[in-house]
Amino acid sequence: MPFLRTAKKDEIPPGTIREFDIDGKNIALANVEGKLFAINNVCLHRGGPLGEGELEGQVVVCPWHGWKYDVTTGKLTTNPTVGVQCYAVEIRGDDIYVDLG
User: Fold this and answer.
1) Which domain holds residue 15?
2) Domain count of the chain?
3) Which of 19, 26, 69, 98 has its Cα between 20 and 30 A from that of 63?
4) Quick one: residue 47, left, alpha or beta (phi over 0 = left, psi -120 to 50 = alpha)?
5) CATH number of the domain bearing residue 18
6) Which pTM was predicted?
7) Going residue by residue through the chain (101 aa), what tens digit of pLDDT does each one get?
């Protein structure tokens, strides 16, 4: 699948995470110290929206039950053998593109 435009860079300042629906996929886009990461937005526990959680460094805390994911890998911090899908991110000018492939 090609990279799809997701947002403008200034929509996701450092230290924040937001959720987006791109071509029918629900993703969370996080800005960790100026570097952008995209992960599946759905928590493995009960389907909580990760993009509505708190970003603590590179860890997002699910707002429903507190499960923690490393946004750089998508892995659970308590069990790095499982996690949510990660997606490649590209910056083109002021736009953020995500590859859902």
Assistant:
1) 3-99
2) 1
3) 98
4) left
5) 2.102.10.10
6) 0.94
7) 689 999 999 999 999 999 999 989 999 999 999 999 999 999 999 889 999 999 999 999 999 999 999 999 999 999 999 999 999 999 999 999 999 98
